[in-house]
Amino acid sequence: MEPIAKTYQPAEVEEKWYQRWQEQGFFQSKPNPRKPAYSVVIPPPNVTGVLHMGHMLNNTIQDVLVRRARMLGKEACWVPGTDHASIATEAKVVQMLKERGIAKTDLTREEFLKYAWEWKEKYGGIILEQLKKLGASCDWSRTRFTMEPELTEAVLRVFVDLYKKGLIYRGIRMVNWDPQGLTAISDEEVVPKESQLKMFYLRYPVVGSEGEFLTVATSRPETIMADVAVCVNPHDERYRHLHGQQVQIPLLGRAIPVILDEYVTMDFGTGALKVTPAHDLNDYELGQKHNLPVIDILNDNGTLNEKAVLYVGQDRFAARKQITKDLDAAGLLQKVDDYQSILQTSERTGAVIEPRLSMQWFLKMSEMAGPALAVVEDDRVKLHPPKFKNMYRSWMENIRDWCISRQLWWGQRIPAFYLPDGSFVVALTAEEALEQAREQTGNSELQISDLRQDEDVLDTWFSSWLWPISVFDGFKDPDNPDVNYYYPTDDLVTAPEILFFWVARMIMAGLEYRHEVPFRNVYLTGIVRDDQGRKMSKQLGNSPDPLDLIAQYGADGVRTGMLFSSPAGNDLLFDIKLVEQGRNFTNKIWNAFRLTQGWEVNAELPFPNEKATEWFQARLQDALTQLEDHFDKFRMSDALMTVYKLVWDDFCSVYLEMVKPAYQQPVDPETLRRTTGFFEQLLKLLHPFMPFISEEIWHLLAERGPKDYLCVAPWPKQQPVAGSADILANMDKALDIVAGVRNIRNQKGLGPNKPLTLAAKTDDLALLREYDAIIRKLSALTEINGVDAAPAASVGFVSGGVEFFVPLEGQIDLGAEKERLGKELEYAQGFRESVLKKLANEKFVQNAKPDLVERERQKLADAEAKITALEQSLAAL
Predict the structure, then answer these.
(1) Alpha-carbon span 260 to 609, nearest angstrom
(2) Starting at the edge strand that comes first in sequence, how are the strands of the sheet with 333-346 ordered?
(3) What span, in angstroms and rounded, lies between the C-alpha atoms of 794 and 821?
(4) pLDDT tens string 295-348
(5) Which residues contact residue 245 at a Cβ distance below 8 angstroms, ignoring those fewer than 6 apart?
(6) Helix, strand and coil percent figures for the chain, each rounded to 5
(7) DSSP notation for 194-235
(8) Strand, coil or helix: what is 464?
(9) At what angle do helices 772-779 and 724-748 cross, to 10 degrees?
(10) pLDDT per residue over 479-521, tens digit each?
């Protein structure tokens, strides 16, 4: 066997084992009727993406779940893949073309898509390769892409089906328009940002009343050219004389009516509202109610068009600056106030959203929302943590139709075909569309060239809502072995911000097309934030590069660092110290391994460690019980901490100290055998969290067969230890005595190995006799005796109600010790008096909760025991 490296080297270990796992095919999965299925689909990252801290957290959690399921004997299948990300990818391609001196407008659709696929093939798989560095045990042979031919066909089939069912329709609606991305976006893709804005008070001249003005407050003076009315509350006495009158739009001079509606709040602004139906959703609904015209003065890119008359061709914000100056110069700007408000921005481009009337395709959501809400309410789909049920319910009960069309070229093109007369048909292919068109018109002479396919593509989410079914080809063949075996999937790990527009929609699609939920559990991670509470992002420059972290601290260190404090649904305040702690944990494990491998064995030595091994076996089983509970409740951080404490505290700091031989002395074979057995069990528990170092030590710990990898080793089984509660309790008592002796060593500046003796004032020496060897070894004691009184020159402590004394004659400065003990006694007496006063207060005793009163009484008992011990120690000195 080669010499064991002094320090753990993660880089070479990680590359070696990941390659071997893949060569062995451990991550690949096929339907196996002899094993229960366990399946997870990855939330597909955008092909534009690179690994960030949110991905690190999300995919580490998925990998922990998948690796553990694999060890539990399940047929674990983790399906990876990427999302085509219409808006984000098209923006990247447009930028790439711009750098080459090519404008999108100079290209045909086919030419642009050729460039887009070229970009996707070059950059689209980067993030999946980065996930391998993290240790993600995905079945890479199953990698899917939302725009691959099979998945695109599934999307189009669903569109056609829902259209035939009357759930998809085309109509003019007010949508969120992204002037930079040049497309409509959904409500869920709008990011509200608190901003400092300005409120402009404009003077609208009253027609036929020289010198009279109606003042209107607006935050968007550049849209006044699209005004079609000014609305006031009919009960507002200030404007009663203007009922039925007209006012003129400032600068433009066009007359518009003053209309009446209780929608207007009298005490907000001036109580007069400019009505601009083309550029505000509420104004649009008000306009519909009063049969007002619609004037759209904005182009797709946010510049003003000819209908504006003024400032034509100018960007909306440039026009705002100019019109403000012109209004002021004309005496039509009364004042400008600053105010805090919410600005709606595009998630993809950051551009300020324009509410805009547009012909779009919509999916009716109300029919599908009811069943999707019911399965969450009755826990057929469990949300972890369950607090998100309320948010989910609120969204589903207030659902609006989904705008599914996007004015882009990259994406699944809407399968609607327009006839020369302006009507349309919806079909999977152009050939099917032609057949329908001939039937619809009765014109058998129609040709495919007579049909024009809709230019729009479908919203990205319209493909990803089908993901749990489409990755198993459940639309291509609804009865294929994969979808029948792996669907529904087991667990979904994702972020709360996409609970509605991905998770909820997947549930709808699953119920619609498989009559079954798509997953049983949804684990909602928090957001990774910096120490100032800001979301980590490359734009803010507050996010470390995950690959740099892996290179510096090792993948296992980063994985554990991310999980140390990431409870479900709560944000993770990232601190590099967490990753350092993870790295230190890998070093601790490595050093424990090196320690045990350095032991020499003497076959003639007897086995002296029954108590130690009995205790650790009970402790291991107790931890296994805790782990099962944590995993069942998706408490991933707690599960890791259970393993961490078991390894660091119980195994390394206590068990190994109990059984390790004296310096340069041999160990008996049974102790080594049992210690190695415990180490193997611990490696199994560590593996889902720390796959690389655990696999490395697994192979160094013993000779292994060609298929004997920790990655597929069985998860430890529960093997209850008889009398484990007493075993654990008695060892806790023994270790408390050890802690008492070590505390005295620390207080007195005595070295950890300086020989001391211990005296116990008790008639019951059974525990001390039973654990004598362990207490003496861990405390570096030469002997433990029973005494009737405190020995001379000793210092005492209380453990388990028993007084213990450590004789210190000749070990310390007795005068200084007397002074220290005197001060400690004085403090303890003062503390006792404060507790006595509280317990003497009848109101406190009568009104406080019983457990609170009992705690005070326990404090008194502890204080009195401590005072007695201190007095005896002083007397002994």
Answers:
(1) 91
(2) 213-218, 190-205, 333-346
(3) 11
(4) 999 999 999 999 999 999 999 999 999 999 999 999 999 999 999 888 999 987
(5) 206, 207, 208, 209, 257, 258
(6) 50, 20, 35
(7) EEEEEEEEEEEEBTTSTT-EEEEEES-GGGGGG--EEEE-TT
(8) helix
(9) 30
(10) 999 999 999 999 999 998 889 989 999 999 999 999 999 999 9
Find all residues with CB under 8 Å of 66, minimum gap 6, and list them: 38, 40, 76, 78, 137
pLDDT of the residue at 848: 84
Residue 488: cis peptide before it, omega within 30 degrees of 0: yes
Contact between 84 and 467 (Cβ < 8 Å): no
Token pair of 780 as six digits: 């570096």
Query: What is the model's pLDDT at position 370?
Result: 96
Closest by Cα among 164, 143, 185, 148 to 44 = 143
Report the DSSP beta bridge partners of residue 247.
Answer: 206, 256
List C-alpha distances in Å: 63 to 425, 446, 485, 492, 765.
45, 55, 21, 12, 50
pLDDT at 810 over 60: yes
Residue 795, strand partner residues: 806
> Residues 344, 192: contact at Cβ < 8 Å?
yes
Q: What DSSP line would sit under 312-374, residue for residue? A: TTSBHHHHHHHHHHHHHHTT-EEEEEEEEEEEEEETTT-PBPEEEEEEEEEE--HHHHHHHHH
Share of the chain above pLDDT 90, in %: 76
Which tokens belong to 623?
């931890």
Going by C-beta distance under 8 Å and a sequence separation of 6 or more, which residues neighbour residue 677? Answer: none
Distance of CA 514 to the CA centre of its chain: 28
* Mean pLDDT, the chain, whole residue set: 93
Q: Retrieve residue 700's tokens.
A: 């160094």
Closest CA to 803 of 866, 855, 715: 866
3-state secondary structure of 494: strand
Cβ 675 vs Cβ 616: under 8 Å: no
Q: Is the Cβ–Cβ distance between 672 and 611 less than 8 Å?
A: no
Single-letter amino acid code for the residue at 457: V
Tokens of 223: 């849209």
**Of 691, 747, 684, nearest in space to 716 by CA:** 684
In angstroms, the CA 308 to CA 797 distance is: 88
Structure letter (DSSP) for residue 401: -
How confident is the model over 35-76, as pLDDT tens digits? 999 999 999 999 988 888 888 999 999 999 999 999 999 999
- CA–CA dist 563, 262 (Å, integer): 54
Strands annotated E in 235-277: 246-248, 255-260, 272-275
Report the SS3 class of residue 572. Answer: strand
**Count of C-beta atoms within a 10 Å radius of residue 127:** 21
- CA 780 – CA 388 distance, rounded (Å): 54
Q: Which residue has the higher pLDDT, 533 or 678?
A: 678
Token representation of residue 148: 């691959």
| Diameter over CA atoms, the chain | 118
- The number of beta carbons lying within 10 Å of the beta carbon of residue 801 is 8
Indicate the pLDDT class of residue 538, thresholds 50, 70 and 90.
low
pLDDT tens digits, residue range 855-873?
889 998 888 888 888 887 7
In this structure, what token pair is assigned to residue 714? 């069985």
762 contacts 722 by C-beta, under 8 angstroms: no
Report the interhelical angle of 555-563 vs 53-71 (nearest 10°). Answer: 100
Residue 852: strand pairing partners: none
Question: 419-423, long-range: CB within 8 Å, 24+ apart, which pairs?
Answer: 419/446, 419/450, 419/451, 420/450
CA gap 389, 381 in Å, rounded: 10
Separate counts of helices (H) and strands (E) for the chain: 29, 29
Place of tokens 């690179």: 50
Provide the phi-psi class of 25: left if phi over 0, else alpha when psi is between -120 and 50, else beta: left
Q: Which residue has the tokens 């597929």?
A: 712
Distance in angstroms (rounded) separating the CA atoms of residues 679 and 685: 10
* Residue carrying the six token digits 């291509």: 476
To which H or E segment does residue 579 belong?
helix 576-597
